[in-house]
Write a structure and sequence with these properties.
Blueprint: E1 2-3, E2 6-9, H1 13-24, E3 29-33, E4 47-49, H2 53-63, H3 67-74, E5 75-81, E6 91-96, H4 98-110, E7 115-119, E8 122-128, E9 131-137, E10 142-144, E11 147-150, E12 159-162, E13 165-168, H5 178-186, E14 191-198, E15 201-203, E16 213-215, E17 240-244, H6 247-255, H7 278-284, E18 292-297, E19 304-308, H8 316-324, E20 334-336, E21 339-346, E22 363-365, H9 375-393, H10 407-418, H11 442-453, H12 458-480, E23 482-483, H13 487-495, E24 505-506, H14 507-511, H15 518-524, H16 538-549, H17 551-568, H18 586-595, H19 600-604, H20 611-623
Length: 627
Amino acid sequence: MLDFDIAVIGAGHAGCEAALAAARLGCRTLICVMNVDTIGALSCNPAIGGLAKGHLVREIDALGGEMARNIDATAIQFRRLNTSKGPAVRSSRAQADRLLYRLRMKQILENQPGLAVRQAMVDEILVAKGAVWGVRTSLDEVVRVRAVIVATGTFLNGLVHVGMKNFSAGRLGDFPSMALAQWFKAQGFAVGRMKTGTVPRIDRNTIDYSRLEAQHGDSPVTFFSFSTPPGPPPLPQLPCHITYTNEATHEIIRGSIDQSPMYAGVIEGIGARYCPSVEDKIMRFPDKTRHQIFLEPEGLDTVEIYPNGISTSLPLTTQIRLVHSIAGMESARIMRPGYAIEYDFIDPRGLKASLETKAVAGLFFAGQINGTSGYEEAAAQGLMAGINSVRYCRNEEPLVLDRSQAYIGVLIDDLITLGTKEPYRLFTSRAEYRLLLREDNADMRLCAIGREAGLLGDAAWQAFSEKQNRIHNCLSLLENTRVKPTAAVNSQLAQFESSPLNQTLSLEELLRRPELNLKHLGELAPLAETPCSLEEDGMVADEIELQVKYAGYIKRQQEQVERFRKLERIELPEDFSYKGLPGLSNEVVEKLSTIQPRSLGQAARISGVTPAAIAVLQVHLKRLGRI
């Protein structure tokens, strides 16, 4: 019998972050994966980041996770999204070399001290007296552990659909996890079905690029990791190309809709609302004459192209006709068919904020098993599950990030409080304090927490400390450097298309003007009462400008956060009984009893729990002397 502290089941994005975190924090960790060649695989689109997702990647990095460094090292295109909009919604995205991303992550895991990588299928989690004590593999090998992190992705009872044909698989070409899926049902977990899908892959050599619009990445690039030094990316950069569906495409889909397993009623699982199949797009939006498609290269040394926008589970013959109807792809050859996959997930309302299950001590869930969609959401959960599994083994308090601290906090709180009926995807709109939770300041928010948790290394901490000092010194300089309304100053301002001064102002006050940035002030600084030099650029300059320009809004949101935290500080006991409390409806009692909120703030966010019910709880807690 083998002995470890922690076992991680699955080596997708959740499993990789969980295993690395656990091992780096000093626990003997085993990661079990059905095929070691698929560690860190990008199963769907070859990209990391995106709207709100880029925020998660930066947060993972600030806490000491691996995803940001991995994509920085293997990206073939970097782009910042929403740059014309406010700072709260700007996000980064990068196209990855799919093979290199996977191989680098595999290498990181293989060379991590304290982490053992095993090709093994876990069939059973061994439980005694309500707590985990081991796992059993399909080869009847028993491994004794103190905690288990389940990060199985789409593999639990996975079923792949192409047209009316379906077969059991974790993803196309991989075995599903059937025995473990049955174990969860036998244990009484609330199991549901969800669906996701992917696109047909196209041979690059059969695409007519002369008819397509090229979309190049940013130059210079903005890396994800705060520890990646500025400069050119390590890999050659490739463009994407844009094309569109058309009415002929739509007619092909409408004419074959009876062969769609989803519309034919073959698929039981619920799909992602915000990542619909091309069939969904055509049927749900009949007035739209075309839908955009991004032809994304899958790597430097492959001809495979990912046509982002035409996820489908139609029959292969229909997929071929569909692809050939699109401009630039009239002669395109499909290398891999698109497909849909159904899989089991478990109601995340059965989790604590630590991602430990309420039913079994030492059992943690991360990723799609919790009903989420997306590599980034999975990695964030994996990181937190890894940290908290270590703390569980050491009998320490879990690390819980609240909604005002991180998008990770928003993600986990939404799952455990509200649950989900469809694959959950994170958006900036889900974060009520998003001006404070910007992508650019993830390190300012979370590096100290990552350092305290033991994950943020010396080099990263030193880089953060230096950045923090630069920001502090620059803000102080801006505040204390004053500029008089001289002819030279006003002449310079005129060149910046900014109004002249008629009184002495600080550089900080000048920076509040929307048309001025830190570079402009660098040219004004030598003309100040006390001449000085400003040379900040890049992410440091962005952070300084945002702090100054949005100071009023930031202060207002900080006040909102303080009100939020007042309710968060009022804790509710885990074994609190809501039955019999006067003033609570049966519905409220049922929901509070099911979720067992950790605080009055979380109770207030449960759907159907009214302000009147919160007032009743406050009165009762006062009587108990808890307020």
